[in-house]
From TrEMBL:
<keyword id="KW-1003">Cell membrane</keyword>
<keyword id="KW-0046">Antibiotic resistance</keyword>
<dbReference type="GO" id="GO:0046677">
    <property type="term" value="P:response to antibiotic"/>
</dbReference>
<dbReference type="GO" id="GO:0005886">
    <property type="term" value="C:plasma membrane"/>
</dbReference>
<keyword id="KW-1278">Translocase</keyword>
<protein>
    <submittedName>
        <fullName>Daunorubicin resistance protein DrrA family ABC transporter ATP-binding protein</fullName>
    </submittedName>
</protein>
<dbReference type="GO" id="GO:0005524">
    <property type="term" value="F:ATP binding"/>
</dbReference>
<dbReference type="InterPro" id="IPR005894">
    <property type="entry name" value="DrrA"/>
</dbReference>
<keyword id="KW-0547">Nucleotide-binding</keyword>
<dbReference type="InterPro" id="IPR017871">
    <property type="entry name" value="ABC_transporter-like_CS"/>
</dbReference>
<dbReference type="InterPro" id="IPR050763">
    <property type="entry name" value="ABC_transporter_ATP-binding"/>
</dbReference>
<dbReference type="GO" id="GO:0043215">
    <property type="term" value="P:daunorubicin transport"/>
</dbReference>
<keyword id="KW-0472">Membrane</keyword>
<dbReference type="GO" id="GO:0016887">
    <property type="term" value="F:ATP hydrolysis activity"/>
</dbReference>
<dbReference type="InterPro" id="IPR003593">
    <property type="entry name" value="AAA+_ATPase"/>
</dbReference>
<keyword id="KW-0813">Transport</keyword>
<dbReference type="InterPro" id="IPR027417">
    <property type="entry name" value="P-loop_NTPase"/>
</dbReference>
Amino acid sequence: MIRFGSLPPLYSVVTLYSVELYSRRAYSVRRRELGDVMASDLAVHVTGLRKRYRDKPALDGFDLDVPAGTVHGLLGPNGAGKTTAVRVLATLLRADGGKAFVAGYDVARQPAVVRERIGLVGQHAAVDEVLGGRDNLVMFGRLFHLGKREAGRRADHLLERFGLADAGGKPVKQYSGGMRRRLDLAASLILRPAVLFLDEPTSGLDPRGRNEVWAAVRALVADGTTVLLTTQYLDEADQLASRISVLDHGRVVAGGTPDELKSRIGGDRIDVIVRADADLVAAAAVVKGIAEGEPEIDPDNRRVSAPVRDRVAALTEVVRVLDTRGIAVEDIALRRPTLDEVFLRLTEVPDERES
């Protein structure tokens, strides 16, 4: 669970600020006023969101639309505004301007009802390590004003759903990293939130633990939960997100499906790894004569990479010319651009672009 300064986890925030529960009828008039937003299939709708910390803008005209029942990735370098955006959408921070609706409700005007419909899982688990997994979930259920019996039923259901039923009686300190994160996810779903915010959910996990969390996230979305994912692992966004927004300097600089973003920096690429360092320049000259752009040279890996238009023809010609010139290669392959390359291209500083 994420903590901001001295704030408790969102579970406790919801408990502290949602003592008075609001019925659907109490908001029926306001929901009619938001007809356009509510009639759409958007779980998150943000326009022109702004937030400044003293003289520095953290959000500077941030726009975001997230369709219900999908995973939307929010990527950006450190300081781009990702955490600030999540804090505003989770009602933990007030924006200076703009509009934001989560699950159809205005986060500024209706924060209490928004909190009833969201969950938040941060970079660090906030479950009690002394208690068992089931006791943790029952505790969160009681904090959410569930009766003792209902809290127990909900805990048992979530343990089964996340593959933790056999470990429910064990202290959490005996859990693996992946198990703790799955328990964290389970705790965020006590009240069946419509929207779940995941902030770096697999940070520090080994590959097995990451796969466990990914499987759990996919299961949530299959059941209709909307997920807004912030992550530094671009392969994670590629694996989970149906759409991605790239955030830089407080605003979205690009958005689309993973394949659409990859296409923005070109189509297929050819990679040639030479056997000897001395052949690197000669191989680059061969690739340059066939490729659609200037080749990139990676001396450490003895690799030459460049974009190509006709993938089969380019591969055939590169192999032929390399063989004719007697340049030995260890590997040659065609591939699509990676999200890492997209991210670096979209968020590079102006001086880097000019160079």
